[in-house]
Amino acid sequence: MRIPFQINSLDKGLFTKYFQMTSDELAAEGAYLFESDQCPCYPCRVSLTDAAIGETVLAVSFRHLSVNSPYCASGPIFVRKDSITVTPEVNEIPPMLQHRLLSVRGYSDQDRMIEAQTVEGKMLRDTLVQQFRNDGVRYIQLHNAGAGCFNCTVTRV
User: Fold this and answer.
1) Confidence of residue 1 (pLDDT cuts 50, 70, 90)
2) What total number of domains does the chain contain?
3) What CA–CA distance (Å, rounded) separates 120 from 130?
4) Are strands 150-156 and 5-8 parallel, antiparallel or unpaired?
5) Is 76 within 8 Å of 149 (Cβ atoms)?
6) CB 3.0-4.6 Å disulfide test: which of 26, 78, 92, 103 passes with 88?
7) Helix (H, G, I), strand (E, B), or coil: what is residue 145?
8) Which residues contact 24 (CB under 8 A, 6 or more apart)?
9) Count H helices, E strands: the chain?
10) Amino acid 50: pLDDT
């Protein structure tokens, strides 16, 4: 059974102000800018690509599950300074997700986690389809399994 899904990046506009702040202002927000020193390592949640060596990257806490539920959550993410908001094609898996160990978490209409698996990125498509076969899954969030950082949200199309 084919189940169409859409991987959703974060909007660059949410982070533009950080790139105009001083180091002290960033520190007051619990954020900082740094130069990427390895690749792949810093996955950008706006462009859904890994930062290249030498790129300016923002590290900031982001509330990725802002819901009235025990599962509400925030955590660190990376955003490339020169990123552009992307919208992957339906059923497209960005390369950034294909080489990572991922935690795939399915949530209900009540924002409760009802599915959870840890998979290699190359198995992500099958895992997304499997979780969406559960009619109770309204959306899925992807996290890096090792560090636990949020990557993106996946919705049904």
Assistant:
1) low
2) 1
3) 15
4) antiparallel
5) yes
6) 92
7) coil
8) none
9) 3, 8
10) 95
**Under a CB-based contact definition with an 8 Å cutoff, are residues 60 and 77 in contact?**
yes
Q: Which whole-number Å values give the CA distances from 76 to 3, 96, 122, 126, in the listed order? A: 30, 17, 24, 27
Q: Quick check: 145 pLDDT over 80? A: yes
CA distances from 73 to 32, 61, 70, 127, 151 (A): 20, 10, 9, 22, 13
Alpha helices in the chain (DSSP H): 23-28, 95-98, 124-132
d(CA 134, CA 118): 17
- Residue 60: CB atoms within 10 A of its CB come to 19
| Domain interval for residue 57 | 5-156
pLDDT at 22: 96
C-alpha distances in angstroms, 71 versus 47, 127, 138?
Answer: 26, 21, 14
Average pLDDT, the chain: 94
How many angstroms separate the CA atoms of 37 and 55, rounded?
A: 8
pLDDT, tens digit (0-9, with 9 covering 90-100), for 134-143: 999 999 999 9
Torsion of CA 60, 19, 89, 99, to 10 degrees: -50
